[in-house]
Specification:
By secondary structure, the chain is an alpha+beta fold. The chain has helices spanning 5-22, 42-54, 67-76, and strands at residues 32-37, 58-63. It has one domain. 51% of the residues lie in helices and 15% in strands. Strands 1-2 form a two-stranded parallel ribbon. The radius of gyration is 16 Å and the shape is extended.
Length: 80
C-alpha cells in the first residue's frame, strides 16, 4: 500500500500530537527523540525525521530487524 505525501504528513501530525500528549513536560530544542520503524514505514520515518529536525529536536532513527535477522539471532546466538 502506498500513501500520498498528504496522507504521510497527516500521519506525522498524529504522531507528533501523540508525542506531545504522552509526555509529562514539553518537548525542548536539542532533545533526542528515538524513532523505531520497520522498512515498510520508511517514507513515514523520513517525513517524521524532517518534522522533528524542523522543530529543533534531534531524531535518532533505528530500523527494526527483518524476520530472517531475528531468527538468525535466536538460532545462532551464543547460549553460554
Amino acid at each position: 500500500m502506498t500513501f500520498t505525501e498528504e496522507r504521510i504528513e497527516k500521519y506525522c501530525d498524529v504522531l507528533l500530537w501523540a508525542l506531545k500528549t504522552a509526555r509529562k513536560g514539553p518537548c525542548r530544542k536539542n532533545e533526542i527523540i528515538m524513532i523505531r520503524y520497520e522498512l515498510p514505514a520508511l517514507r513515514l520515518a523520513e517525513a517524521l525525521q524532517a518534522r522533528l529536525l524542523d522543530a529543533g529536536m534531534n531524531p535518532v532513527l533505528r530500523v527494526g530487524l527483518t524476520p530472517r535477522m531475528e531468527k538468525q539471532f535466536f538460532v545462532k546466538a551464543n547460549q553460554k
